[in-house]
Amino acid sequence: MTEVGDVSKVVLRLRTLASDPTNQPVIVRRGVLPSVVSFVQPHHSEQVRAVAAETLRFLASHEDNRQIMAQEPRLVESLTIVFNNNPALNTSTGSEDNSQQLDNLSIYTRDILTTLYPFLTDKQKQQLPSLQQQLEALKKKKLRKKHNVSLIVKELTTDKIRSNLESIILNHLRDSISYTFSVPEHRVNIYTRASTERILQTFSSNGFTCSVLLDSICETEYNNGGADLEELDEKENNKPKYVERRQDDAHRKTLVSCDSIEARLDRKTRKKEKQQQQQQQAGSFIGKIASIFW
Question: What's the main place this protein lives (predicted)?
Answer without folding.
Answer: mitochondrion
